[in-house]
Amino acid sequence: MFRGIDEVDWASMEHAYGSAADVPELLRGLASPLPQDRETALDGMYGAVHHQGDVYDSTLASIPFLFALAGHPGLPDRGGIVELLASIGGSDDGETLGDGFGDGEDGAGGGQGAEDPGDDNYAMARAAVRTGAAVFLGLVTDADPEVRRAAPSALVRFHDEPPHVLALLSERLRDEQEGGVRLALVESLGLLARLHGGSTAPAVDCLVSLCDAPHDPGLRLAALGQLASCAPDRLPADLVPTVVTLLHTRSQRIRPSTEPVRTSTDTLIGSLRRMRPADEEGAQLLRTLHKALGARTTDRIALLKGQLSSRNTADRCNAVWMSAGLFRDWRAAYEEPVALIGEQLGSDEERLRCAAVSVLEFLFTLAAPAADRLAALVESGTDSRRRGTATLYRPLKALARCGDARAVPALAEVLRHPVVPNETGDAIGYLGPAAAPLAPLLRERLAEVPLDSPDTYDRAVPLLRGLGTLRYAAAVPEVLRLLHGTPRELRLREALVKALARTLGAFGPRAREAVPALRELLTGENAVAAADALRSVEGDAEAVLPVLLGALAPEGDQGSRRAAAEVLGRMGATAAPALAGLRHLADSAGVWERTAAACALWEIAGDPEPVLPVFREAWRHNPYTRGTIAACLVRMGVAGTPVHDLVRTELASPRRHRARSGGHGSHDVLDDELLLRDCRTTLGTA
């Protein structure tokens, strides 16, 4: 397996962490008799030699040895080596390889996302894996079922004779007895059809035949999922009822896994294995189908309702996780599935309750149909609240985020404990006037924050956010105590000063006793924040304009220029001296600076001509700017008509505006719902 390995000049090569001199040790570790060593070595290969999909010279040099390991009969854990080879070779159809964990539509990891078009390492890796792909032919009949599961996909991706591959997969489907391998073969048939189109029409015919009895429910679900992704016109008209029936039938037949217990090393791969769902096979079957159905939200909602009505806890848990990708990526009416997810909060199964809370937590106001169940869970204290930690009790956070006043008593209880979680201030912000009773308690707790402790910032900021949200100006003395009393060498002092200034600004004119302190900050690191606060408290444009004009200067940092533009916009016509600087900023390279400057230009001068071109370009090229732009368009009224085509297109889109951004943020659903609200208001359809 390792013939010639010591003749390779590994020390002259590199991987993600520098010299590749340790690669021979990793490769030999893959053949270790100890399972822990094999898992650690595989984790090292992914973590360094193939870090986040990158291909280094050491990655290329490893390929022959990986093929030798994969083809060595009897060597344990070769399935993982086959998957590693397939990942190094790249994904020709944009699909990711590996475990497939995650709750989004597109997933992350695997693939060649970091590929540099000017770097030929990726092309060389793809060619090297294609050259060795004949090894995969023999692995589809290997004695190890894990190898037989991994081999079909690799064979489809890299073998150059699709008809031969199709014939082999069909033959194996007839002879294979292990259920997991049969599912992998079906998935590979679908992949073959997607990659090679019309030249593999028999693959589609084979999938159609597998959708019917007498095949077992799991195999039929797999075939339907693959058919949905490669030939949706061949799906049965009664797809959803068929899938729900198959799901329930499969659940009644499912047996505990016969796979050996895996090692529990402290590695990424070990962590992923421990995170696998209770019914991993069922999760993958439904994930495939949901992803393939894409924008067919009516079918997907009906499918979720069917999954959530199952008597099987694992089915319902899978449904909850499936819902996350749907809610985050697509716009639809979700009251019914959200209410059903809320029902899961009453389950005795902790895994199911945790899954439901995790989904409801990022839905904000869309979680309202589940609010009664959330409130009951919060009031019952069924789950551990981990008091005294830096994390807010998640059901309580979800309840507060949907604006339900029943969160207030529980938040008051949180505020009475020594450590106030950082999310508390934000949670209070979603409750509006209902949270007013919390203000005196927030003030009391702020008075207890030590002035010179390493955790002064961590303890003060959640309280400041809450007080600022509630505009509780009675707390000005406590805010000034921190502003004047904290030593200059305090950890994160400048960040704390910015938070203090923002809180004073939120209090408005009722914080006039803070004016001298804010004026002192106008020459420091937090000058823009202090100017904004002074503007709010005192309303003296002459005092703050010099600071804000200075922050607009080209030599300033981008964050300060953007912040200054936003403050100037809030000042309105009194900021007219800043128009020249804002026009220059509106032509700058940074999209956020341009957007902030354009908004300020409208607020100050009321002239749409220099504003709308900036909005159009930013809207098209950075979806994250759309919320800011739409809010400004609401204020512009008919003056924004020339860009209303963008607004109409947005409202007509079934997909959330951040769905293709390459990841999911905790506020993506909320921000999209706010964008839709402002778009409707702009067009007068709210």
Give your account of this protein's structure:
- The protein is 60% helix and 1% strand.
- The protein has helices spanning 23-29, 35-49, 57-70, 78-89, 121-131, 134-139, 145-158, 162-175, 179-196, 201-210, 217-230, 239-253, 268-275, 280-293, 297-308, 313-329, 335-343, 350-361, 371-380, 394-401, 408-415, 423-429, 439-447, 456-470, 476-485, 493-507, 515-520, 527-538, 541-551, 558-571, 579-585, 591-605, 612-621, 626-636, 644-652, 668-683, and strands at residues 14-15, 18-19.
- β1 and β2 (18-19) form a beta hairpin.
- Residues 93-104, 106-118, 256-263 and 271-276 have low confidence and may be disordered.
Based on DSSP secondary structure assignment, what is the total number of beta strands? 2
Q: C-alpha Rg, in Å?
A: 29 Å
What oligomeric state do the depicted chains represent? single chain
Structural class, please? Answer: mainly alpha
Distance between the termini: 68 Å
- How large is the share of residues in beta strands? under 5%
- Provide the residue-averaged pLDDT: 90
Largest sheet: 2 strands, antiparallel
What is the overall silhouette?
globular
**Strands across the major sheet, in which order?**
1-2
Helix content: 55-70%
* Number of helical stretches of at least 4 residues: 36
Low-pLDDT windows of residues: 93-104, 106-118, 256-263, 271-276
Outline of this structure?
This protein has 686 residues and is mainly α. It contains 36 helices and two strands. A hairpin with a 2-residue loop joins β1 (14-15) and β2.
